[in-house]
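Throughout this chapter, every protein is written as a compact record of paired, labelled lines. An example of such a record is reproduced below:
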Amino acid sequence: MRTPLNSQAGPEKTEIRVKQESRGSYLASLADCTSAALSAAPERVFAVTSFTYRGRMDRFRGYIAGIGTASGTRLVVGHWLESPFGAFTDVMAENKAGSRLLLAPNPAVAEYIGGTYSFDAVDVVDVRARLTAVNLLVSAGPLRLNLSLGARTLLGRLLEQVPPALAVHPRWLAAINPVAGLLVPGVRTAGSAGGERREYYGVRSIRSIERADATWEGREMGALGPIDPPVHFGFSSTPSAPQIVAVTTSIVS
């Protein structure tokens, strides 16, 4: 039986499995995952540039890449340059059966992300990533991923015109949230992070992803495709088209 994060409606927490090597459980099945409650995630305070905001805030500045594959598994990579946990990379995967897995680089990150989003399994594995001007390379447990980056999108160029401090401010993101879903179906800029917390996505630029070479435990995951159906980790999905976005995520309590 899975145990809720708390009495408030929100994501449920899942057992964290520290893995020295992959056991081949994910693409076949996640039925062996037993769930348990985790302790509350650590609190951090980050200031908002050029604005005053009441409340405790965790800020994550970096990139999110989302892709679909012919195997039916969709992948969301968070490549964070600055965060309460320093620089790190995590991977969220949802297979065609709807099973959701988090690959995290250490227990602290696993606990925080696992307490903010919903997963059927959380694995702590060795995660390494490198982002260049032309590609994103990721090695995470059973996953090997090479994403070839394309040009900036039209929406991405428009977002670059928004003043940076305004683009990531929670009040601005709450105000434009109704419009975001109309421009990009399934995408929201503000919503619940569980436990009476609010989460805000401030996207500053967008580039297309032109190609993906992905394997899981050595098996090809197939050609690049749209994120269809949408992923179900939190209140917002990624855009259907494979993209990488420059983003600041703020979680306010």
Q: What stands out?
A: The first strand starts at residue 3 and ends at 4. Helices lie at 107-114, 154-159, 164-167, 170-183.
